Amino acid sequence: MTRCPWAYGGSLYIDYHDNEWGVPVHDDTKLFEFLILESAQAGLSWITILRKRENYRRAFVDFDPEAVSRYGERDIERLMNDPGIVRNRRKITAAINNSSAFLKVRKEFGSFDSYIWSFTDGRPVINRWTEQSEVPAVTEKAVEISKDLKKRGFSFLGPTIVYAHMQATGLVNDHLVSCFRHAETSKML
Q: Which pLDDT band holds residue 25 (cuts at 50, 70, 90)?
C-alpha cells in the first residue's frame, strides 16, 4: 500500500494520514479543533502537535469554542504552565480569541462549516500531484480565506496555517495520486 511520503514518520503519522488527513470535515467542533492545532503547529513539526493532541483536548475542553471563549487571564496562566501543550502565549491567546470569532461566524452563517466550505463551493479541491515537491505550502485560496478570517477577528491564521487547515480538513485533497487515500478521499464530500 503506497502512502504520501510524509506519512512514513512513525505510527502517529500513519494513523493520522490513513484516517484523517484530507477527509472532508463538516463538524464544527472538529473544524475548531484543527484551527487550534494548526495554529499551535506554526513553526513546529506536526508530529509535536500529534503527540500533544490529547493534552490539547483536555486543555481546551474537548475543543468546545463556547467554553474556550470564556477563558480569562487565569486560564492563560494555567495553560502557560501546562507542559502537555505548546506554551506560547501568542498561540494560547489566539486560540481563545479565535473561539470568540468562531462563534460569531457560526452565528452569522449558521455553522462554521457553511462558512469555510463556501470558499470551495461546498466541494473539495482535488489536486493531482505526483511528487511531494509539487504540493504547495500556500495557495491563492488560502490567502483569500486567511484575509477573510482576519477581517472577522481571527488571529494567528496566516495563509500557510490556513492551507494546512484546508489539507487537514479535506477542503483540498493533496494526497499524491499514487497514494491509496487519494482515490478514497476524492469520492468523499
A: very high
